[in-house]
Design a protein that fits this description.
Its cofactor is Mn(2+); Mg(2+). It contains 11 helices and 12 strands. By secondary structure, the protein is of the alpha/beta class.
Length: 361
């Protein structure tokens, strides 16, 4: 039997609550298949750990995580710890140290999910965002000069390397080719006259190797508008770190809300573990009440299964989430329901168990 070692960083707020449901679902999938299992190891890192130790994770945290096949992250952030500390001292360190340069965020409107657009068909919202994840605007390069003085200056530099830009664009082309879908590049070359001109140039160069892939390119402001006015034109999308971060939240609003938004941080070469997480925050205002929405964390668990090569089980989970939304009986308060976090997970497991009879195990 194959054993997948998964490091669990449940994090802060509702993180532990929603991650528990994802773990339950993953264990159920393994039980149904019986050819693999999961070995979960929990690490207490996050803002509470920071308040006790002055750091978001242990000094040897990266070395410890290297031993795992995947990382399952809940949510990070809590009042009293500055957001740039909670982000940079845990999540971004992991992404960079493990070269998780591909961020994958599906924007897919499931049947039963609420969409704020009144004149759009469900099938019109089916995008796959591929976001550069280790450099660009989030490289962390810059300086803070003459702090506190009249001539105070801050410099925030975007870093776009040939290697980093080309590999994410090539990954996107390969994905679009495999799926038989179009690829859209999103940049801002009219205003960012170095980084985004370079991005567009690399996109054009790589596109010559993929004549079978239909392409388009938009400025980010136009893309934000078109995602709302004509979302069907976007299929596979590739963009930079900052633009991908912002636009996928727009996408989440179109596809049922942040409670359904999942993300994967992938090292395609598998030299290092990849990390899977819900996109939502830690929601400290409802932490401990057992009403956090676990669907995004469960969707990210399906991405983990996809990464391990079990796409049929990833689809089984997504189909169950859609069935749950259509049924509309077991939903958390953010989705206008009254169910608890664990009740949602339990109902999903019932659906997965029933539907598994149609999957080749």
């Amino acid at each position: 039997m194959k054993t997948y070692k998964v490091a669990v960083i449940a994090g802060d707020g509702i993180g532990p609550e929603v991650i528990d449901e994802g773990v339950k679902v993953l264990n159920k999938i393994a039980e149904l298949d019986q050819h693999f299992e999961f070995d979960f190891t929990y690490f207490p890192w996050g803002c509470e750990y920071y308040s006790e130790h002055g750091k978001m994770m242990a000094e040897d945290g990266i070395e410890k995580l290297k031993e795992f096949d995947a990382i399952y992250l809940g949510a990070v952030g809590f009042p009293g710890v500055p957001d740039h500390i909670s982000l940079w001292d845990l999540l971004l360190i992991i992404r960079k140290e493990f070269d998780q340069y591909v961020n994958i965020r599906p924007v897919k409107l499931l049947e039963g999910a609420h969409c704020p657009l009144s004149d759009v068909k469900r099938e019109d919202i089916d995008m796959l965002f591929i976001r550069e994840n280790t450099e660009g605007e989030y490289s962390g390069a810059g300086d803070w000069l003459f702090k506190g003085k009249e001539n105070e200056v801050v410099l925030q530099n975007g870093v776009f390397s040939r290697k980093g830009t080309e590999r994410i664009i090539r990954y996107a082309f390969e994905t679009a080719k495999k799926q038989g879908r179009s690829l859209t590049s999103i940049s801002k070359a009219n205003a960012l006259n170095y980084s985004m001109v370079f991005w567009d140039q690399v996109f054009e160069e790589v596109s010559e190797e993929y004549p079978e892939v239909e392409t388009a390119s938009y400025l980010v402001d136009a893309a934000a508008m078109l995602m709302i006015t004509d979302p069907k034109r976007f299929e596979v999308v590739v963009t930079s770190n900052l633009f991908g971060d912002i636009l996928t939240d727009v996408g989440a609003a179109l596809a049922g809300g942040i409670g359904l938004a999942a993300g994967a941080n992938v090292n395609p070469e598998r030299k290092y573990p990849s990390m899977f997480e819900p996109v939502h925050g830690s929601a400290p205002d409802i932490a401990g009440q057992g009403i956090g929405n676990p669907l995004a964390s469960i969707w990210s668990a399906s991405q983990m299964l996809d990464h391990f090569g079990y796409e049929q089980y990833g689809k089984l989970i997504i189909d169950a989430i859609e069935q749950l939304l259509i049924e509309g009986q077991t939903l958390t308060p953010d989705m206008k329901g009254s169910a608890s976090t664990s009740e949602v997970g339990d109902r999903l497991i019932e659906m997965i168990t029933t539907n598994s009879r149609t999957v080749n195990v």
